[in-house]
User: Fold this.
Amino acid sequence: MNKIEKLIAEKGYLIADGATGTNLFSMGLDSGHPPEFWNIEFPERIYLNHQNFVDAGSDLILTNTFGANRFRLALHKAENQVHELNLVGASIARKVADLSERTVLVAGSIGPTGEIFEPLGTLSKAEAESAFTDQAIALKEAGVDLAWIETMSSQEEMESAIVASKNVGLPIVCTYSFDTHGKSMMGLEPKELVKLAEEHSPEIMGYGANCGIGAAELIGSILCLVKSRKNHAMHIVAKGNCGIPEFIDGEIKYNGTEEIMAAYACYARKLGATIIGGCCGTKKEHVKAMADALKENTMECPLELDQMIKSMGEMTEGNIAMVQKYLNPEDASIVDAVSPRKQRRRRQKIN
Assistant:
């Protein structure tokens, strides 16, 4: 049993961390400036962000390397710094984890290239695999426990990152980001992620959803993933945004509260997720609320869409339709399907 599986077996679940960008912006990061540059420019701030999440209860922290691939870095004329930025970023997280009094895992964050694959675009799978391999090599050299492939929307890009991570020998967690219609930007449904992930088991140990819209929407995606799975040995991952982003006084702010994120964490756990964290907008206070709620384990979390919306916020009509698509009559003991009348009433509320 590896380090990751051992920790999950002991605790039953892992608390992942929260947002990187949101918290770095609050520390002074300018819009448009790559967060990965701070691994070198302000390593103490990156260290502090990791430490804040560990103090709040995170068992797993993501490296500040989301956009540290040659294509994204080329936008800032830093394509030759892939190895350095990944190595330093992962080393900072590794130091925080190693100095903790309890076991904390380090996940090497690998995000999308920002390019479109052939034939719609110009990026080939070979080029993508090469770019992700450069990133994975540096992350492994710094001692990450696993590769965390996140916020993907196309199968070709996900497969390229998976191949790269497998080739360097890293265990893998992968997540798609699903939009208002319950699909990825490239039109993929939750069941397609499940199929892809299960084909690459056991190298892929877990899969799930991150980012997207709000907490309720992400829980809808988790429900769909759970309904599609066949390999129950694989872990389900939930890493949702802290509510919905709103533009207030010239800044993007998320309307999620500690109470909403606590409910989200408990819903995710009840559905079967074993790695639960936050994405955009999630601060240390939210992670602590999530950790406390899961530890107390007193929230009822009725698995019925009306109650989920009441606890975590609105769901779009498209996501409701996607969830309904994945529910069958025989699932009544697990999730109460919404009656047509309730669904009409809810759509009026959302719209």
Summary: The chain has a mean pLDDT of 92. Residues 82-99 form the longest helix (18 residues).
